[in-house]
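Figure 2 data, in text form.
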Amino acid sequence: MTIRGWAEILLVLVVAVLLAWPVGIHIARVAEGKRTFLHPLLGPIERTFYTLSRIDPAQEMSWQQYTFALLALNAIHFLMLYAILRLQFYLPLNPDHLAGMSPRLAFNTAMSFVTNTNWQAYSGETTLSPGSQMWGLTSHMFVSAGTGITVALALSRAFARGGLKTLGNFWVDLTRIVLYVLLPIAVVAAFVLVALGVPQTLATHADATTLEGLRQTIAMGPVAFMEAIKQLGTNGGGYFNANSAHPFENPNAFSCILEILLVLLIPFALTFTFGHIVGEKRQGYVLLAVAGIFLLAAVAVAYSSEAQGNPLLTAIGVDATQGNMEGKEIRFGIPLSVLFNVVTTATSCGAVNAMLDSYMPLGGMVSMFLMQLGEVVPGGVGSGLYGLIVFAVLAVFLAGLMVGRTPEYLGKKIQAKEVKLAVLAVLILPLSILGGTALSLALPEARASLAIGGPHGLSEMLYAFTSATANNGSAFAGISADTPWLDTTLGIAMLLGRYAFLVPVLAIAGSLGEKVKVPASTGTFPTDGLLFVGLLCGVVFIVGGLQFMPALSLGPLAEHFALFAGKSF
C-alpha cells in the first residue's frame, strides 16, 4: 500500500459525501412534494402523467396498499421484460437479427433486472440488440432503483409521523424519484461519460485496422446512458460482458472515479434525506458514520491483500512490488480497482472494473462479506437505508434489554411485532445463501458449473448465491452460470432477497406509522451519538455477518492460509 493510493481512495470518498449532502436534501424535498429548481421544466410532465393515469397525488395509501401497488408494478415489469427478451428477434433495433433468449435465461435475466440485481449469465454485446438493451434493460434500471428509494421514503415517513395509517402514495413517490432525481442526474452523467470516451450510438459495431494491419470488428451501442443509470441506480448490469473493465464502459481513471461517485451518491444521500424527513439530522449522520466505518475497514483489508501480491508468483520471480495485478486494468491500478470493487459490493451495484475471480482470497472474501451483511453499508439505492434501519431496530431492542426498558427509536416504541418482522427480514439472507449453496454443492449437475474444486470452488458457488440473494449481480467469473439449475435457483434467490426482505420492512413501516411519537425520557437509549454508532456496527457485524463465518472459513480463509503455506488447489 502507498500514501498515493490511500490519498486517491480518501479523496473519492470525501467528494462522494460532499456531493451526497445537497442531493439528500433535494430527495427529501422531492419526497415531501416541495418545489425544486427542476419543477418549472418537469412539473408539467408530472402533472400530465397523473392526469393520464388518473392518479390523485393527494391520496395516500396504507402499507398494504403501498405494498400491493409496488409488487403489482414489479410483476408487470417482469412479464414485460421477459417478453422483450424472448421476442427480441421480432423487435425493432435489432440489425444483427439476434435470436431471443431461452425461457430459463430470460426468466433469470428478467428477474435479475426487476430486482435491481443485474446478474448477467450472458454476453451483452453478442446476445442482446440495442433495442433490448435500451427498452428492456435500461428502462428497468430506473424502475428497480426507484422502487428501492420509495420503500426507504415510506419507512422514513413512518418515523416522522405519529398516529397515521398511511405511508404516502407509491405511484407519486416512484414518479417523482424517477423524474426529479434519477433521470436528470443520469442525463448529465451520460453527457460527461460521452465526453470521456464512452460511446452512445445505435451502431452495433465499428470496423478498425490494427497497427499490425489486421481488420477488427469492435462491438458498440448506446452505452453511455445505460452506464450512467447502471452506476447511479446501483444496478451493475453492463452493456458488455467485461462490464466496467471494458474501455467503452470505463475508458480511464477519470471515468472510473466518476462511476464510483455515481454508485455512492444516492446511498450516501439517503442518510441525509432520512435525517431531514425525521427532523433529526444527527440520526442521518449516525447511519452515514456506520457505513463509512465498514467501507474504510473493507478497503483496508482488500487493499492490503491485493498490494502484497501472490506468494506463489513471487516464489518464481514475479516482482511483488507491483501487487496482485492479475485480472486488473493497468489504467486503474490496484487502489482504484479495490475501491471500485468494495464500493460496488458494499452497495447493490455489482459492476466490476477487475475480475473478482483473480483477487487474492481475502480480497474476494471482503466482497462476499459486504454482501452477506445485507448490503447495508451503505447498500443499494433505498434498500441500503431501509436495511440499515432494520438493524437499528434490532440494536435498540438489544439496548432496551440492557437498560431494562421498552426500546424506542426516534420516539417510536419498538415492540414484539417490529422485532419479529426485523428478524424475519434478516433471516432471509442466510436461508437463501447458505441453503442454496449447500444444495448446489450436493448436486453433481450443479457442481459441474464450477471451474475448480477445493476452497475456491466453494467460494465461487457461495459468491453466486450471495450475489443473487443480496441483489448485487457481481460474480466470480470462473463459474458457468447459464445452466438450467443456476438460471432457476439464482432467479429464485433474487426474488427472495428483494421481496421477502422488502415486504416485512413495509409491514414495520405500517406498524410504526400508527404509533404516536413519545418524548425521550431518562431511560431512553440515545441513538444520535457515538455509543449507538458502535452498537449498530456491532449488531450489523454479529447478526448480519458472523452467521456466514463457517462457510467463509471453508472457502476464502482456507484458500488464504493454504496459499501462504505454499500450496494451491
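Caption note: Residues 130-160 form the longest helix (31 residues).
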